[in-house]
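Researcher: Quick test of sequence recovery. Tokens follow.
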């Protein structure tokens, strides 16, 4: 995440010495559980799990041969419980991520700032099977929502952008 004046706020890179296992050692073997994703921005905003950890996947060809974290959709997550302290109050920011889904025609999130409740009224980015806006509403789209001074700050992409290939989402 880059803040409104170009300051790097968070950088979750997918390279060596970035992931830690549940035991606290470096996660560098395919299939290891990931307890922590270390922030490389210098700000110390690492993401951790208190519950089911996601899984490390090494050398993922579809996303530049880098390592990746696999979220199986079974309650596994990584979070920074202090995220609001550095996101709230920004005049603007940019975020981009590289994702790869194993399914389309789905309602699955890849960035949430609270437990999903279907409202998309906080900072969220997700696949949306059937959109809400437009006539006809887009299907298999990407939806972004953010809470600001006005409710309903939601944007939907056009139809059929969900894919099982690697994507850069921004």
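Model:
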């Amino acid at each position: 995440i880059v803040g409104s004046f170009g300051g790097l706020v968070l950088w979750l890179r997918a390279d060596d010495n970035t992931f830690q296992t549940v035991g606290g050692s470096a996660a560098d073997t395919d299939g290891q559980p990931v307890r922590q994703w270390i922030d490389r921005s210098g700000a110390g905003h690492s993401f951790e799990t208190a519950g089911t950890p996601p899984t490390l996947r090494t050398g993922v060809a579809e996303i530049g041969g880098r390592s990746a974290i696999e979220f199986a959709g079974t309650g596994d997550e990584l979070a920074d419980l202090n995220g609001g302290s550095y996101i709230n109050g920004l005049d603007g920011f940019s975020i981009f991520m590289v994702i790869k889904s194993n399914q389309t025609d789905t309602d699955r999130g890849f960035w949430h700032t609270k437990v999903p409740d279907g409202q998309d009224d906080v900072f969220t980015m997700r696949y949306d099977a059937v959109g809400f806006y437009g006539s006809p509403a887009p299907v298999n789209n990407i939806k972004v929502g953010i809470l600001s001074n006005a409710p309903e700050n939601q944007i939907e992409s056009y139809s059929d952008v969900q894919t099982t290939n690697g994507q850069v989402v921004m």
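The mean pLDDT is 85.
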